[in-house]
Structure formats: structure tokens, C-alpha cells
Amino acid sequence: MSGLRPDLQRTQIELDKLPQGSVVIDAYGNAWQSSSHGIYWHRAYGEDDMYSSWELCQRAPLTLMEPRKKPLARPAPKTRTYR
């Protein structure tokens, strides 16, 4: 038994299903990226500690950042007109 409320248990299960490299934003505006170490997540800045999905789900609500379907268009290069 994880000792979590049912809604947080569901969130933890969903976090564990996400692929490596997924990014979520927590209730405090911190970005977290899933690591190659299974259920662990790293904050985008600050401390180097890893948080488990059990710890992270308690910072709900979490927003999953969807990966881009296609790359951003490159801006047109600046040109100069000489007369």
C-alpha cells in the first residue's frame, strides 16, 4: 500500500507510464523531467536530487508538456538591401 489518496495513486501510476524524457509542470510552476532511472524525476533547475513518482505526485496537479509534432519553423534570414 502506497499510503496515497486514490487520486494521487492514479497520478503516480500515470507518471510511471510516461516515457523517458517526459516533462511535467507541478502546482508550484516547477518543471520536472523523467530520468533514465525508471520512476525518478529531476527538477529542471536547482537541486540535483532525484524525486520518485510517489514524491512528485504529491505536488499535484501536474501538467504534462506535450512534445512538438513538428519542429518550429526557422525564421527567414535577415537580408540587407543595398541601393
Give a written overview of the molecule:
With 83 residues, the protein is α+β, with helices and mostly antiparallel strands. 19% of the residues lie in helices and 20% in strands. It has 2 helices and 5 strands. Strands 4-3-2-1-5 form a 5-stranded antiparallel β-sheet. Strand 2 and strand 3 form a beta hairpin. The longest helix has 12 residues.
Distance between the termini: 77 Å
Q: Tell me the Rg in angstroms.
A: 18 Å
Q: What is the arithmetic mean of pLDDT?
A: 84
Backbone shape: elongated
Determine the number of helices (DSSP H or I, runs of at least 4 residues): 2
Q: Give helix and strand order, one letter per element, not per position.
A: HEEEEHE
